[in-house]
Amino acid sequence: MRQFLIAGNWKMNAGPKEAKALADQIAESWEDKDTNSEILICPPFVSIPFVVKRFRDTGLKTGAQNVHTENNGAYTGEISTEMIHELSCEYVIAGHSERRAYFFETDELVAEKAKKISDSGLKPIVCVGEKLDERKNDIYRDVVKNQTEAVLELLDSSDASQLVIAYEPVWAIGTGETATPEQAQEMHAFIRNLIADEWGQEASESVRILYGGSMKPGNAEELLSQPDVDGGLIGGASLKEESFSEIISIAESIDK
Ligand SMILES: O=C(CO)COP(=O)(O)O
């Protein structure tokens, strides 16, 4: 059975001071609790050390939001997997739609990042998802297929249990509009089938596929109850301990 992963993506929010306070609240709620779900926070780079420090020995995990494909060198403003590894992070997000849109990351670059993350012993959380016009024009499956297959081509089936894919329809991110549970399940099953086609059924069953896009306490139960939804990548609702904890509690109450 796949373990739920409840992940907070803080995006460009929560500098060191705020991150410390928020990590403290989250740790107070969840340390010493034997949860079935894996709980992860991905703060901005500058806040990572503070969150790592607070989460040490609590079972709570920390990740990064982005990475470069080289180990070091003349890449001003960039961060490598080695550096993230040294900070004791376990996960790295690759190809968030905001990076695809504002920093022109292509499917190929995102796949290279996923490969680099995986080869470094870190776990990639690769984001895929269509824009509103792509859904309206009924090409959303093609878009998600291309994004997913680019990654499956560079990684291989032995990476399956470490790989996380986050289906985040762009039209649902930060908008308050969520995919219906049926829409989410359809796309999660579609992605799992793509993995099965490339890597075989068994490998496809071990990849976790998270839903992201306005997940909050009010809709988490119906989304997380879907058979192919293995957790959430949560933006806004992860910036408040109460709503993030509520989503974790909901995940803990679901028996699939
Ligand atoms: O982009 C997201 C997580 O990566 C989702 O953000 P929201 O939960 O704020 O819609």
TrEMBL record:
<comment type="pathway">
    <text>Carbohydrate biosynthesis; gluconeogenesis.</text>
</comment>
<dbReference type="Pfam" id="PF00121">
    <property type="entry name" value="TIM"/>
</dbReference>
<dbReference type="InterPro" id="IPR000652">
    <property type="entry name" value="Triosephosphate_isomerase"/>
</dbReference>
<dbReference type="GO" id="GO:0046166">
    <property type="term" value="P:glyceraldehyde-3-phosphate biosynthetic process"/>
</dbReference>
<feature type="binding site">
    <location>
        <position position="174"/>
    </location>
    <ligand>
        <name>substrate</name>
    </ligand>
</feature>
<feature type="active site" description="Proton acceptor">
    <location>
        <position position="168"/>
    </location>
</feature>
<dbReference type="GO" id="GO:0019563">
    <property type="term" value="P:glycerol catabolic process"/>
</dbReference>
<comment type="subunit">
    <text>Homodimer.</text>
</comment>
<keyword id="KW-0413">Isomerase</keyword>
<keyword id="KW-0963">Cytoplasm</keyword>
<dbReference type="InterPro" id="IPR022896">
    <property type="entry name" value="TrioseP_Isoase_bac/euk"/>
</dbReference>
<dbReference type="GO" id="GO:0005829">
    <property type="term" value="C:cytosol"/>
</dbReference>
<dbReference type="GO" id="GO:0006094">
    <property type="term" value="P:gluconeogenesis"/>
</dbReference>
<feature type="binding site">
    <location>
        <begin position="235"/>
        <end position="236"/>
    </location>
    <ligand>
        <name>substrate</name>
    </ligand>
</feature>
<dbReference type="InterPro" id="IPR035990">
    <property type="entry name" value="TIM_sf"/>
</dbReference>
<comment type="pathway">
    <text>Carbohydrate degradation; glycolysis; D-glyceraldehyde 3-phosphate from glycerone phosphate: step 1/1.</text>
</comment>
<keyword id="KW-0312">Gluconeogenesis</keyword>
<feature type="binding site">
    <location>
        <position position="214"/>
    </location>
    <ligand>
        <name>substrate</name>
    </ligand>
</feature>
<dbReference type="InterPro" id="IPR020861">
    <property type="entry name" value="Triosephosphate_isomerase_AS"/>
</dbReference>
<feature type="binding site">
    <location>
        <begin position="9"/>
        <end position="11"/>
    </location>
    <ligand>
        <name>substrate</name>
    </ligand>
</feature>
<dbReference type="GO" id="GO:0006096">
    <property type="term" value="P:glycolytic process"/>
</dbReference>
<comment type="similarity">
    <text>Belongs to the triosephosphate isomerase family.</text>
</comment>
<comment type="function">
    <text>Involved in the gluconeogenesis. Catalyzes stereospecifically the conversion of dihydroxyacetone phosphate (DHAP) to D-glyceraldehyde-3-phosphate (G3P).</text>
</comment>
<keyword id="KW-0324">Glycolysis</keyword>
<protein>
    <recommendedName>
        <fullName>Triosephosphate isomerase</fullName>
        <ecNumber>5.3.1.1</ecNumber>
    </recommendedName>
</protein>
<feature type="active site" description="Electrophile">
    <location>
        <position position="96"/>
    </location>
</feature>
<dbReference type="InterPro" id="IPR013785">
    <property type="entry name" value="Aldolase_TIM"/>
</dbReference>
<dbReference type="GO" id="GO:0004807">
    <property type="term" value="F:triose-phosphate isomerase activity"/>
</dbReference>
